[in-house]
Specification:
One of its GO terms (biological process) is protein homotetramerization. It is found in: Cytoplasm, Cytosol. The protein has 494 residues and is an alpha/beta fold. The chain has 2 domains: 13-255 and 455-481, Aldehyde Dehydrogenase, Chain A, domain 1, CATH 3.40.605; 260-445, 3-Layer(aba) Sandwich (Aldehyde Dehydrogenase, Chain A, domain 2). The chain contains 15 helices and 20 strands. Strand 1 (13-15) and strand 2 (18-20) form a beta hairpin. The relative contact order is 0.14. Bound molecules: nicotinamide-adenine-dinucleotide and pentanal. Nicotinamide-adenine-dinucleotide is lined by residues 153-157, 180, 182-183, 212-213, 216-217, 220, 231-233, 236, 239-240, 254-257, 288, 391, 393, 419, 459.
Length: 494
């Protein structure tokens, strides 16, 4: 497969175990190949009727799935993991074509996805309640039960991985799921739906509805939807929470961030430079947990800056399907303009562009309409600049000098976000002391942006609540039933 040649299989909705045209619509959307600017799919956004059909289909499948034992569910999820592993390169290629991230990175996203399925398949057989002895031989027990039909709504930066991070624990717990991807990236999640069917889930257990905000609202408002798990921006997260509150539906919110990365002068500087690049430039900087506020202790500011600029200038930008590319195009033209706008504003507010920050036009003529830019490092930054305060969601690193631990902690926490944070130091006491003070759901010591599926992922403050991955996520996709058993006579007060 080469860039510019991929044809999307239609239709893109998936219901009852097969691809379907939506029964009704609320407008149309176009999906692009960011590398070329080519429209690769035009599709109808699902309307209220299609959403209802998807919910009914999921309800029917849920009745079958919830009766299966954990071990039976586990075997099917393991089979889905096996198929994903087998089709890794094909799925990664589709992800790269629709999202723009390098094929090198997309392969890792697919690896994390099958690992996530394996992890929850492993937990499915061990979900159990507890037995509690009560006076007089009476006793109680608890049962962990599924919620029902869960809705997953995803962002465009990790389309396949987000769908798996939501569906793997949901299905392991015995739920059904309807997933709505971002209208920018509608393609790869349909492959996931087909894989679940091939692996043996009942038809309708995992359905896909395509569309934007209106379709998402129909899903959140549907009376038979038991839970909404959302990944996206803070403003949309607020709306989802409001809509879901009407039906008292629990929500998981995985929202944006503006995370701090603190680099102390006693760090291993080579690792700190690598860490700062991992924290800023994966997926063209379009990563929620990116450590975009890089605080560097003044003693090593010049040395660190010189090295990180040198390494950033070496990043190979271009055709994302080529194996040696490390940075592809941004998701679309308006997002590219938005990111460049932050850099312009930063310059006006006194930031200094140390490298990149402008458009990149690849030599290959078929890429000339793609959405490429050179990764940017901003120096001379101040905490109150817009580029330091707001989530840019592009390849833009801001470097901020600091002097003391107390000072940097106060500045690092001075944000409404709280998704992630990182610290580089060789002082083990300091590392843990700093992490204990950081107001963030995910903290890294001497690394950044690694996401093992065994570890919970999610934010503090306005970056959301609930978690994905790890054992704890089982609690977000199940509910606890308490059963109280009387072994004697009823002692009535009447
Ligand atoms: N914390 C995380 O795990 C995580 C992961 C990836 C992305 N993100 C965040 O996502 C954002 C970028 O993604 P985006 O631009 O797709 O976000 P977005 O909020 O614009 O859209 C996310 C999803 O919500 C849908 N949506 C929009 N309005 C809706 C409404 N009123 N009701 C229901 N659904 C609606 C969209 O169609 C899309 O599927 C960034 O802020 C990023 O930090 C967070
Ligand atoms: C599912 C991917 C999480 C990383 C944030 O963008």
């Amino acid at each position: 497969m080469s860039t510019g040649s991929f044809t999307v299989s239609q239709p893109l909705n998936y219901r009852g175990g097969k691809r379907v045209q939506p029964a009704d619509g609320s407008g149309t959307e176009e999906a692009y190949e960011p590398a070329t600017g080519r429209v690769i799919a035009t599709f109808q956004c699902s309307g209220e009727k299609e959403v209802d059909l998807a919910v009914q289909s999921a309800k029917a499948a849920f009745k079958i799935w919830r009766k299966k034992s954990g071990m039976e569910r586990s075997r099917i999820l393991l089979e889905a993991a096996r198929i994903i592993r087998e089709r890794r390169d094909e799925i990664a290629t589709v992800e790269t074509i629709n999202n723009g991230k390098s094929i090198f990175e997309a392969g890792f996203d697919i690896d994390i996805s099958w690992q996530c399925l394996e992890y929850y398949a492993g937990l499915a057989g061990s979900m159990a309640g507890e037995h509690v002895q009560l006076p007089g031989g009476s006793f109680g027990y608890t049962i962990r039960e599924p919620l029902g039909v869960c809705v997953g709504i995803g962002a465009w930066n990790y389309p396949f991985q987000i769908a798996v991070w939501k569906s793997a624990p949901a299905l392991a717990c015995g739920n059904a799921m309807i997933f709505k991807p971002s209208p920018f990236t509608p393609v790869s999640v349909v492959l996931l739906a087909e894989i679940y069917t091939e692996a043996g889930v009942p038809p309708g257990l995992f359905n896909v509805v395509q569309g934007g905000a209106a379709t998402g609202q129909f899903l959140c408002q549907h009376r038979d939807v038991a839970k909404v798990s959302f990944t996206g921006s803070v403003p949309t997260g607020k709306k989802i929470m409001e809509l879901s509150s009407q039906g008292i539906k629990p929500v998981t919110l995985e929202l944006g961030g503006k995370s701090p990365l603190i680099i102390f002068s006693d760090c291993d500087i080579e690792n700190a430079v690598k860490g700062a690049m991992m924290a800023n430039f994966l997926t063209q900087g379009e990563v929620c947990c990116n450590g975009t506020r890089v605080f560097v202790q003044r003693e090593i500011l010049d040395k660190f800056t010189e090295e990180v600029v040198k390494q950033t200038q070496k990043i190979k930008i271009g055709d994302p399907l080529l194996e040696n590319t490390r940075m592809g195009p941004l998701i679309n033209r308006s997002h590219l303009q938005r990111v460049l706008g932050f850099i312009e504003q930063g310059k006006k507010q006194g930031a200094k562009v140390l490298c990149g920050g402008d458009l990149y036009i690849p030599e290959d003529p078929k890429l000339k309409d793609g959405y490429y830019m050179k990764p940017c490092i901003l120096g001379n930054c101040k905490d109150d600049m817009t580029c330091v305060k707001e989530e840019i969601f592009g390849p833009v690193m801001s470097i901020l000098p600091f002097d003391t631990e107390t000072e940097v902690l106060e500045r690092a926490n001075d944000t409404t976000f709280g998704l992630a944070a990182g610290v580089f130091t060789k002082d083990i006491q300091r590392a843990h002391r700093v992490v204990a003070e950081l107001q963030a759901g995910v903290c890294y010591i001497n690394n950044y942006n690694v996401s093992p599926v065994e570890l919970p992922f999610g934010g503090y403050k306005m970056s959301g609540f609930g978690r994905e991955n790890g054992r704890v996520t089982i609690e977000y996709y199940s509910q606890l039933k308490t059963v109280c058993v009387e072994m004697g006579d009823v002692e009535s007060v009447f």
